[in-house]
């Protein structure tokens, strides 16, 4: 065989080898991109949700069907009565803007049932059907409803670790979980994504009652925003509209009350108060009732910074100087006046992603965190 023939054969073999390798690389990247798209958190796509349910949903077909995006399911009062042991005090787990909340066992899963007094209304059913179609991994899923015997009820998935308040506030007693700074950033990011998804709808859906108590965490401490759309639903079924107690007024945008209109920027203000509580580890109602301007807000933060009272002492050395400062700056941008100067929730998500990623890199590479003070 001539040298030319040998060269041609070797070159052809090398070319085939390169083509095969490139084919494997293309296949790997395609699979990776598909996986990334399938896990995109901003999706309310029913097909994506069904794929998620196949891998992570309840094991039984009856319970799995509750999570499938088929619209609001109507339950009978008899079912809910049995699920909650006749709405016993032992199953009462809290109170919200919609009324008392009961834990129940329904079709093989634990659910949360919110009960509101009211006669049957078509507006209630229409509102529930709309809200049940909004699906996102950082929103508590609405599974169904019931209208019987003078009550209107909403059935939600039950989030096992409850409100972040139970793990965050410094009550003087030892908390069940010590939330480090990176965990708080992750929770803030999840809640921001849930709120951002509501604002991305057409038309945008404003929460109108966002607060720390409405940020729930599951067994993996993934944040899920509760009560999305409840304010809108109450406005539809109550002539006077929903009432807001003084205990949550601290989260309400002062401009919304002054101008008589609620916008997406009002939700951003509420999110800023939530961020402030993540930083301080304290319930902020006692500190920021008087805030009505940038000057008073900055004075509050500066005074507490100078007295070492702003950052939760329980964080210890679990944060970097850059991370805590960036989060404080973001908090101020969310709560600034006038409201038109605030970041929108999409920008908040982007900034939190940047802070979280940087914090993870610095604390992982250097193996330690730095104190701010």
Summarize the structure in words.
By secondary structure, the chain is of the alpha+beta class. It has 13 helices and eight strands. It has helices spanning 3-38, 46-56, 61-67, 77-83, 122-132, 165-168, 181-200, 230-237, 254-259, 264-280, 294-306, 321-335, 345-365, and strands at 73-74, 92-96, 99-106, 109-117, 142-148, 151-157, 215-217, 223-225. A hairpin with a 2-residue loop joins strand 3 (99-106) and strand 4 (109-117). Its EC number is 2.7.11.1.
Layout: helices, strands, pairs:
Elements (H helix, E strand, L loop, with lengths): L2 H36 L7 H11 L4 H7 L5 E2 L2 H7 L8 E5 L2 E8 L2 E9 L4 H11 L9 E7 L2 E7 L7 H4 L12 H20 L14 E3 L5 E3 L4 H8 L16 H6 L4 H17 L13 H13 L14 H15 L9 H21 L8
Parallel strand pairs: 1-5
Antiparallel strand pairs: 2-3, 3-4, 4-6, 5-6, 7-8
Helix pairs in contact: 5-8, 7-10, 7-13, 10-12, 12-13
List keywords for this structure.
single chain; 373 residues; alpha+beta; Phosphorylase Kinase, domain 1; Transferase(Phosphotransferase), domain 1; 2 domains; six-stranded mixed β-sheet; 13 helices; globular
User: How many separate domains?
Assistant: 2
Unreliable stretches covering 5 or more consecutive residues = 29-63, 240-248, 367-373
Structural class: alpha+beta
Based on CA inertia axes, which overall geometry fits?
globular
The helix fraction, in percent, is: 40-55%
Summary?
It comes from Gossypium tomentosum (Hawaiian cotton). This protein is of the alpha+beta class.
């Amino acid at each position: 065989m001539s040298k030319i023939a040998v060269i041609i054969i070797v070159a052809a073999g090398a070319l085939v080898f390169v083509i095969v390798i490139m084919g494997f690389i293309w296949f790997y990247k395609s699979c990776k991109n598909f996986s990334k798209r399938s896990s995109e958190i901003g999706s309310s796509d029913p097909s994506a949700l069904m794929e998620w349910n196949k891998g992570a949903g309840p094991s039984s077909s009856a319970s799995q069907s509750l999570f499938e995006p088929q619209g609001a399911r109507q339950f009978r009062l008899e079912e809910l009565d049995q699920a909650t042991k006749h709405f016993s005090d032992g199953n009462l787990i809290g109170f919200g803007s919609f009324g008392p909340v009961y834990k129940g066992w329904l079709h093989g899963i634990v659910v949360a049932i919110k009960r509101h007094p009211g006669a049957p209304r078509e507006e209630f059913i229409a509102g529930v059907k709309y809200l049940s179609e909004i699906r996102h991994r950082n929103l508590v899923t609405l599974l169904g409803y019931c209208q019987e015997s003078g009550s209107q009820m909403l059935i939600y998935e039950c989030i096992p670790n409850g409100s972040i308040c139970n793990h965050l506030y410094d009550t003087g007693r030892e908390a069940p979980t010590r939330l480090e700074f990176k965990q708080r950033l992750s929770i803030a990011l999840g809640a921001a994504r849930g709120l951002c998804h509501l604002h991305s709808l057409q038309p945008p859906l404003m929460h109108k009652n966002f607060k720390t108590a409405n940020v729930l965490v599951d067994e993996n401490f993934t944040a899920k925003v509760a009560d999305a759309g409840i304010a809108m639903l109450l406005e539809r079924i109550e002539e006077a509209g929903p009432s807001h107690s003084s205990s949550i007024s601290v989260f309400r945008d002062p401009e919304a009350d002054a101008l008589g209109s609620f916008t997406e920027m009002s939700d951003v203000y509420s999110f800023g108060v939530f961020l402030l509580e993540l930083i301080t580890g304290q319930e902020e109602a006692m500190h920021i009732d008087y805030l009505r301007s940038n000057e008073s807000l900055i004075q509050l933060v500066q005074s507490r910074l100078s007295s070492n009272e702003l950052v939760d002492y329980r964080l210890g050395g679990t944060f970097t100087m850059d991370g805590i400062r960036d989060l404080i700056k973001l908090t101020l941008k969310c709560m600034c006046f006038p409201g038109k100067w605030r970041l929108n929730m999409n920008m908040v998500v982007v900034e939190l992603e940047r802070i979280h990623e940087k914090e993870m890199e610095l604390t992982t590479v250097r193996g330690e965190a730095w104190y701010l003070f």
